[in-house]
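Appendix B, example 12.
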Amino acid sequence: MFQFAAAVVVVMAHPVFAAGTGPVVTFKDGVISPQVIEVPAGQAVRLTVKNEGKGPAEFESKRLHIEQVIAAGTSAEIELRALPAGHYPFVEEFHENLATGRGEIVAK
């Protein structure tokens, strides 16, 4: 009985995501769209990052400790933990020197 109860607690402690239910951001040759992504504070979400560019792109957020390379023509899903209200910058690392290569996740 104890083993069953522990398994139930573990399953319930992890957020459940449905594919395609969170925000979507697109990278295309150094341009991030949209550059500001709003998410609900205190709620885990799944961010879909699409790379429509000719080469690889890299989503990087030092504040969130996330780094994900996305091949050209593909997408990746990044699970964002429940964030406190605030601003969380990110870049497309291969183009972070461009103003269009920087973005921000805003939890409110």
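The mean pLDDT is 87. Helices lie at 2-13.
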